[in-house]
Each structure stands twice: as structure tokens, then as C-alpha cells.
Design a protein that fits this description.
The complex is a heterotrimer of chains A (183), B (239) and C (467). In chain A, β5 and β6 form a beta hairpin. The mean pLDDT of chain A is 94. Chain A has 6 helices and 12 strands. In chain A, 28% of the residues lie in helices and 27% in strands. By secondary structure, chain A is of the alpha/beta class. A 6-stranded parallel β-sheet of chain A has the order 1-12-7-4-2-3. A 4-stranded parallel β-sheet of chain B has the order 2-1-3-4, with helices on both faces. In chain B, α12 links the parallel β7 and β8. Chain C is of the alpha/beta class. Chain C contains 23 helices and 10 strands. In chain C, the strands form 2 sheets. In chain C, strands 1-10-7-4-2-3 form a 6-stranded parallel β-sheet, sandwiched between helices. Chain C is globular, with a radius of gyration of 26 Å. Classes of the chains: A alpha/beta (183), B alpha/beta (239), C alpha/beta (467). Chains A and C meet through α1, α6, β9 and β10 of A and α2, α8, α10, α11 and α12 of C.
């Protein structure tokens, strides 16, 4: 183990992740496993969200139920062809892992988990159980095999500084990233 | 300890007072100084300009001249970098010479590095009542790791007021024939360096490299500035 | 026999002089580079074992280069096993042919493209457009540069030299934009415009930052999300890489993904890192149906065979050497007349395009070494530059005055006896000329354009030495 890994492991990976993801422009919300669907629903409603694309993931079932009761339109994975996804107001995914040292979410693609959910809508929400946070990229890559067709590391919103180095959020991907950190 | 002075060609021919200051400083530090008369030029100018066949005989001469020396000290970093880093490359087709080059490299030091790292001597009893800033020359800084040695020596000079140099580690734009082949670029780098020196509030700019100092000092004089460019050895020899 | 005239020699000194006279460019460069330097330093300082990581990265790269055939074969096998198709291209012409043929098999002619230095190197866009394709750059800065008909000016910030107003005026010809649009409004407008093109394009073309031999994984590092669009939406994804982009194992990525964003933009991580292994798998709802990897040589095998300069193939294109280079800070990228600029460009361009075309570039450095200090894979750039200089002089000689000067100098320094005559003589002439205010000979003539010279001393150190 290198000195760097030792130091990073010594820090609380959850706190480090939250700190660094926020520094990269993500909004990190610490929530409990009981209340998070209602919390998220409230925030989505305040944003005026009407269509939400969801990954097919058991973790997201309580949210799906809450959205349906509330009259928000839900796109299941099978309904997420690009043109419809591009019209959605938000994409909600889980994260397979997260990396504390960089503040990155890690999303593995599979049949119920399209790549576009976290890319095309202007808002990406990732639900992340705290136990999935690893300290370093090295730890992540040791767990990544066998590799999926697409493994995406997401650190904050899409951004550019191509015009006079002025930071602008939301170029081709989402303008906002919310991380619902389940403790 | 007996030190063989590698005076370097520019100091020898154009700035002898710097060589003499270096000798005075070394003697004050308690070492005996010799001057092997076989030395001429390390060949760096030709080497950097791409004239390797022309540089080789000069490198061989320097190797012979200092072969028997116990320790070699030069009032300049780039010539030491030339010996340490580039002689083995220049002479790689002659394994014997390349080995000799590595041996010489191991016992050759830049002056401030020798004083601080080898002798552990920081206070040379100097007194220099001026505001002084320090320009870290690129080869000494990055080639030899001469970073805080000159500052530690300056800190012990009586009545000297040290003025930090903004953007200190930026190149002054000398670079041998670079200054001539790309005169406009060199002048632009030099202009930024001179402005930084003026902004530091110093009356004297010092460095361990005479070529940078000639370059910087020449621009200061051209601008009619009253700031003087002096070699670190000259500051340390002052009393 | 080619009907084309031989390519023109790149006159770096003249290009740099033009750049120095462009006040807006100087200001933009200085602002951009000082920002990058500051951001880089902040995130490098927080990594306790940065030096060890650089060393590790260098080891991995040099090991890979020493076993390049093995790893390229493994990469081919793994990409194929994952359902991708590997194509080999000797040069840009072959790469363009391969890609054009793949586009021709689809029902569309539009290629949405994310940033690729390798594609720039072989002017792929022009070659593809000559076959009737439309190539659409989708990185914001690249999009701007393409509209302007100009190559990128910086590896990371392609339109670094353009003001917001100039960009807005350029874009307004294509996209509705409010007058006085700010960076945010410009970005929104380009997003809307390109979104439609992404949704309809049949082919996405990307570069490759790293290709992992062990798993056949293509890695793309970016901030805007356009590379994700290019590799997610179109039916066909084509990735172009030089043979130098392969790395052995997935675990090696931990090293490079730590070094690259910190070195390039001063970020701990870019917004997106995509690890793509084969095309869409059964049951998946998106991703390309076909994945093609074009592995291109374009002169790299020759560099690889050259033990002295092989190290230059370790470059991961972060741009850190540009950002700290005092020469680049004044000349800008276009002075190098190549997509590869700054210190690494001064090495790679002569190797890729020949010493006759780009032989001036290795001399365009004061050898200050700032580049080597920041290079995340520890490429010894000053050593590569001086080695190339020796080759240029051996091949095409040096300017007459320079040759005469070096010969005179090394001749006088050949023996102390000669120096004992030549030194005092030269100083006497020098003093005479200075006192009479007469023109000085080369190289002092150039020197005194901006600097004064002190009067040389009457006697040299060796004459004054009394042991």
C-alpha cells in the first residue's frame, strides 16, 4: 500500500467523498433509507419535474411508487430510447460504487441500466448507499472486473471552460447532479 | 579539503571578479583552492546548439583536467549540469570516457550547493547592506536541485534585506544561442523577468549563473535601471 | 511521383514574432496558463506520493513500449472477444479509408466527433469530407475552431486565443444567439444545436485516451459529455488510437486517471471517464450496435525503433508541459503549425513530419526544464530536445553565422594555449568596438538589440590567478 492510499484510507471515505463530490459541483444530500424517497420527491416537485427516467433497480422501487402516486410520468429502462430520454426532466440512477478520492460516482451499464439515463436529461440524480464508497481509484478498479460494456465515472455535472476559461455547467450532459447518500 | 576550481569559460574570460569572489568565499569556508590550468570550456554552448562532434573534444579536455581532483566546484549551475547529466550522453559511444564523465559528475558541485550541502557552511561572515532579490537559474534549480541553498546563504549575510522575487522560477530567457536564434521570444521572457525584479523592490539581483546575470544585467542597464546584477559569490565575498 | 510541392518548413521564429505582436493573444495565453498552473499545483500538492505515481506511470509506459507487439495483440484479441472490430492503419490515409468505408455502410453521412489529437495529426476531418462525409466536431472549443476553419490552438482549450465576443460573432452565423451573449448563453445555444445532431447521427467518432490490453477497454476522459454522446447514441462507434495508447492492465488506470486530470486541467477527476468494452450487449437499451477500433501507426513504429527518442511515445497528452513552458506562453500553439505544440510538440512534430519540415522546433526552447518537472510520465523533454538538435545539425547543418561562431568558439577553447591568444584578442577587439560604438559581430549583434554589454576586462581570470 502506498503512503497515499494509507492516508486516504485513514480518512473517513464517506466524508471525503461528500466533500470532493461537492467540490466538483455535485449536490450531496445525506438521507436515511426510510425518508429518502419522500425527500427526493419533494425536491423534484420543487424543480417542476414532470417526467423522470429511472433505472430498473430494486433500490429505486420506493421512489417509483412515490412518483406514480404523485402523477409524475416515469420512463422505465425499456422506454428510454434517446429521443424520449432527451425530453425527460430528470434521470435517476443508483451508483454501483463511488470513489472518495475523486468524488466520482461509478455507473455500470446493463440491461436495466441504460447509459443515457445519467446523460441526456438536464438533471441526474444518483442514489448511493454509503457502503458502496471505496477510498481510491485503485480499489475501484480491483472490483471492476468483469467489466461491463460501459463503466462511467461521473464527477459533478457536465462542464466546459472553453470560452475565456469561464466555467459553465451543462454542456452536453446534465447541468445538475444530485447525490442522495443513504446512511 | 582541497577544491579544484572549475571557473567556467564565461567567468574566466569576461567576469574574472566572479571567479575571484568564489575563491575568496571558498577560502573563508576553510578549503584550499587550486586552479587546474588545463581547463577551457565545458562545451555546453556547442552541445546545446546541436554541434556534438565539436563539443566532444572540449568535454574530453575537461575530463582530463579534473580527473585527479578530489572535489570540483564551479560558480555556475549549467556547466555542472552539463558535466553531470549530459557528458554521459555526449560521450556514450566511448564507454571509458562515459565512465570518467560519471565519476567527474559525482564529485562536481555548484558553489552554493557545495557550501551548504557538502561543507554545511552557511555563514561566511559577509556583510552586504542592500535590498537583494534572488533569481533561481533554471539549470541549477531543476538540473541540480539548487533551491534553498542560495537563500540559506543569503539569510546569514549581515544587513542584507531579502526581497522575494515574484514568479521566481520563470526562465529569464537566456538559453545560450536561444537568445540569438529566437531573439524576440528571449526578449519577451527577459522583459517579464526584469519587471518582476523591479517589482521586488531590490537594489541588487543575484543568481548563481553568470549567463543569466549578464542577460538580466544587460537589460537592466539598457532600461537605465539602477538595480545591479551580481553573482552570489560576489555578495558572499562582500564585507 | 507526387504532384504536391514539398511541405513548407515551419518557421517558428517568424511565427512567434507574429504571436508576440498580438496583444489579445498574449493576454489570453497569460490568463489561461496562469490559471492552469495554479489549479494544477493545488491538486498535485494534495497527493502525498505524486513523485512515486509519476515514476510508476513512467515504468508502466516504458514497459508497455518494450513489449508493444504483445500488448497490441492482446488488445486486439480482447476487443474482438468483447464484440468489437479492430482495424489496423499504417497512416492517416489508411485510417481515413477505413473510417470512410464504415460510414458508407450506414444510411447517414454525418459523423459526430469528439476530440482526438490523433485525428488532428492526420487531418482526418478533411480526408473524410473529401469522401463526402460531414464531420461535426462536438467539443465546444473544437466546434468553434472548425467554424473558423482553424486547427485547435491548445490541447485542452482549443479556442484559447478567442474572446467571448469573437466566439459569439462566429457562432451567430449558424446558431441564433442574443447579441452580447455570455459564455453560459453561448454554451446553451450550442448544446441545443448539437443535441439534435447527436440524436440523428449514425456514426460517432472518438479518440482514445487509454486502451487496456487485458480487457479490451477503451477509455475516454472528458468534461463536456460529448464523448459520452458520441459513444452512446449513434448506431456505430469508431474509435481512433495511435499504437502508443495501449496500457497493459485495468489496474494501471488507477495511476493514469490520477495523473491525467490533475496535470491537464487541475481537476481531481474530469466530469466523465468512460470505460467502454465492446458494443451494446444483449438486452441493453442503448449504446452502439457496432464498435470499431482503428489502431494507427503513422510513423510511431519508426519512433519506437529509435531507442534514444522512444520515450516520446509515453506522452499521455495532458498539456502540462505546454502550460508551464515560457516559450509556449508567448508563441501560442499555432506557431508550432502542428496539433502537438509546446515542448512535446517540439519533439513529436519533427519525428512525425520530418526534420526538414519541423527541424526548427527543437531549438525553440531555452531548455529551462519546467516541462520535465511537471510531465506526469517523466519524459525527459530537454534531453529529447538536445538529441534532436544534434540530428538536425548533422542532417541539414546550421545557419552559416552560427556554424562559424561555434567553430571559432570550440577552436579557441580546444587548448589553453589557443585560449591564451584568442581570449585577450577577442576582448581587445570587443573593447575597441564598444568604445567606438561600432557594430558588434554575431552573436553579440543580436544580443545587444535589447541588452547592453559590459566592457570586457583587460585580463582573464587565468591571467590574474596567482594560486
Amino acid at each position: 500500500m502506498t503512503a497515499r492510499e494509507a492516508i486516504l484510507r485513514g480518512r473517513d471515505p464517506i466524508a471525503l467523498f461528500a466533500h470532493r463530490a461537492s467540490a466538483a459541483g455535485a449536490e450531496v444530500v445525506e438521507v436515511t433509507t426510510q425518508t429518502w424517497p419522500a425527500d427526493l420527491l419533494g425536491s423534484l416537485r420543487r424543480r417542476g419535474v414532470r417526467t423522470v427516467a429511472l433505472w430498473d433497480d430494486p433500490l429505486l422501487e420506493p421512489l417509483r411508487a412515490a412518483l406514480a402516486t404523485d402523477g409524475v410520468r416515469v420512463l422505465t429502462a425499456a422506454q428510454q430510447e434517446a429521443s424520449r430520454l432527451a425530453e425527460a426532466d430528470a434521470g435517476v440512477t443508483t451508483a454501483d460504487w463511488a470513489v472518495a478520492e475523486t468524488g466520482s460516482l461509478v455507473l455500470a451499464c446493463s440491461p436495466g441500466r441504460p447509459r443515457g439515463t445519467s446523460l441526456l436529461p438536464p438533471l441526474h440524480v444518483a442514489v448511493l448507499p454509503a457502503g458502496r464508497i471505496v477510498s481510491t481509484l485503485a480499489e475501484l478498479l480491483a472490483r471492476a472486473a468483469p467489466v461491463p460494456s460501459a463503466l462511467t465515472l461521473v464527477c459533478g455535472p457536465s462542464r466546459t471552460a472553453d470560452i475565456e476559461l469561464t466555467p459553465v455547467r451543462g454542456v452536453h450532459g446534465p447541468t445538475a447532479v444530485w447525490v442522495y447518500l443513504l446512511r | 579539503m582541497r577544491v579544484a576550481l572549475f571557473v567556467t569559460c564565461l567567468v574566466d574570460q569576461l567576469f574574472p571578479q566572479v571567479g575571484e569572489a568564489a575563491v575568496a568565499v571558498l577560502r573563508r569556508a576553510g578549503v584550499e583552492v587550486t586552479f587546474p590550468r588545463g581547463q577551457t570550456c565545458c562545451g555546453q554552448v556547442a552541445f546545446n546548439a546541436g554541434f556534438w562532434p565539436e563539443a566532444r573534444p572540449l568535454a574530453r579536455r575537461l575530463l582530463r583536467t579534473f580527473a585527479a581532483a578530489e572535489v570540483v566546484v564551479a560558480p555556475g549551475g549549467s556547466c555542472v549540469t552539463m558535466v553531470r547529466q549530459y557528458y554521459p550522453l555526449l560521450l556514450r559511444e566511448d564507454p571509458q570516457a562515459a565512465t570518467a564523465a560519471r565519476a567527474l559528475g559525482r564529485k562536481t558541485y555548484e558553489l552554493s550547493q557545495f557550501l551548504v550541502d557538502v561543507l554545511g557552511c552557511e555563514d561566511l561572515g559577509a556583510r552586504f547592506p542592500y535590498h537583494v532579490t534572488y533569481h533561481p537559474s533554471c539549470h541549477a534549480l531543476r538540473g541540480l536541485g539548487v533551491r534553498d541553498q542560495p537563500l540559506r546563504l543569503l539569510r546569514r549575510v549581515r544587513d542584507l534585506h531579502y526581497c522575494p522575487l515574484p514568479e521566481a522560477e520563470e526562465c529569464c530567457g537566456f538559453g545560450g544561442l536561444f537568445a540569438v536564434k529566437f531573439a524576440d521570444l528571449s526578449a519577451a521572457l527577459l522583459d517579464a523577468k526584469v519587471r518582476a525584479i523591479e517589482a521586488s523592490g531590490a537594489e541588487v539581483v543575484t543568481a548563481v549563473e553568470i549567463s543569466c546575470l549578464a542577460h538580466i544585467g544587460g537589460a537592466l542597464r539598457r532600461r537605465g535601471s539602477s538595480i545591479r546584477a551580481l553573482h552570489l559569490a560576489e555578495v558572499l565575498a562582500a564585507s | 511521383m507526387s504532384a504536391h510541392p514539398p511541405p513548407a518548413r515551419i518557421d517558428f521564429a517568424a511565427n512567434a514574432t507574429r504571436a508576440l505582436a498580438d496583444a489579445a493573444l498574449q493576454q489570453a495565453l497569460s490568463r489561461c496558463l496562469s490559471t492552469f498552473r495554479r489549479l494544477r499545483q493545488e491538486v498535485v500538492d494534495e497527493v502525498a506520493d505524486w513523485e512515486a505515481l509519476r515514476q510508476r506511470a513512467q515504468q508502466i509506459k516504458m514497459h508497455t513500449l518494450a513489449h508493444l507487439d504483445t500488448y497490441l495483440e492482446q488488445l486486439e484479441a480482447q476487443v474482438t472477444a468483447a464484440g468489437g472490430v479492430v482495424h489496423w492503419a499504417r497512416d492517416g490515409r489508411e485510417a481515413a479509408q477505413t473510417i470512410a468505408a464504415l460510414v458508407a455502410r450506414t444510411s447517414g453521412r454525418t459523423v459526430v466527433k469528439s476530440k482526438s489529437m490523433t485525428a488532428e495529426e492526420v487531418e482526418l476531418n478533411a480526408a473524410l469530407e473529401a469522401t463526402g462525409c460531414e464531420v461535426l466536431e462536438t467539443d465546444l472549443g473544437e466546434y468553434v475552431q472548425r467554424l473558423a476553419g482553424e486547427p485547435p490552438a491548445h490541447i485542452i482549450v482549443p479556442a484559447v486565443h478567442r474572446s467571448r465576443g469573437a466566439i459569439a460573432r462566429l457562432l451567430a452565423e449558424r446558431i441564433p444567439l442574443p447579441p452580447q451573449a455570455d459564455a453560459e448563453q453561448i454554451t446553451r445555444a450550442v448544446r441545443r444545436h448539437l443535441r439534435q445532431r447527436f440524436l440523428s447521427a449514425q456514426v460517432g467518432l472518438s479518440g482514445v485516451n487509454f486502451a487496456v490490453a487485458e480487457t479490451g477497454t477503451i477509455v475516454l476522459v472528458e468534461n463536456e459529455g460529448n464523448a459520452r454522446m458520441v459513444t452512446t447514441l449513434p448506431r456505430v462507434h469508431i474509435a481512433l488510437m495511435g499504437i502508443d495508447k495501449v496500457i497493459p492492465r485495468l489496474a494501471d488506470l488507477a495511476v493514469f486517471l490520477t495523473l491525467l486530470p490533475r496535470s491537464a486541467t487541475g481537476q481531481r477527476a474530469t466530469s466523465y471517464v468512460s470505460l467502454i468494452t465492446g458494443p451494446r450487449r444483449p438486452g441493453e437499451v442503448d449504446g452502439p450496435e457496432e464498435l470499431h477500433l482503428v489502431i494507427m501507426d503513422n510513423g510511431r513504429s519508426e519512433i519506437h525503433a529509435d531507442q534514444e527518442l522512444r520515450e516520446s511515445l509515453a506522452c499521455i497528452r495532458c498539456g502540462a508541459c505546454l502550460n508551464v513552458c515560457p516559450v509556449f506562453a508567448r508563441s501560442g500553439g499555432h506557431a508550432y503549425a502542428s496539433p502537438y505544440s509546446g515542448p512535446i510538440g517540439a519533439v513529436l512534430t519533427p519525428l512525425l513530419r520530418g526534420l526538414d519540415v519541423a527541424g526548427d522546433l527543437p531549438f525553440a526552447s531555452s531548455l529551462c526544464g519546467a516541462c520535465a518537472e511537471v510531465c506526469p510520465v517523466k519524459i525527459d523533454l530537454p534531453r529529447l530536445l538536445v538529441a534532436l538538435r544534434a540530428r538536425v545539425v548533422a542532417r541539414r547543418g546550421a545557419p552559416l553565422l552560427e556554424r562559424l561562431f561555434v567553430r571559432a568558439w570550440t577552436g579557441a577553447m580546444a587548448h589553453p594555449a589557443r585560449l591564451a591568444v584568442a581570449g585577450p584578442l577577442a576582448r581587445w577587439v570587443h573593447r575597441l568596438l564598444l568604445r567606438r560604438r561600432l557594430p558588434l559581430p554575431y552573436p553579440l549583434s543580436a544580443w545587444t538589440a535589447t541588452r547592453d554589454l559590459p566592457l570586457p576586462p583587460a585580463a582573464a581570470f587565468r591571467q590574474r590567478w596567482r594560486g
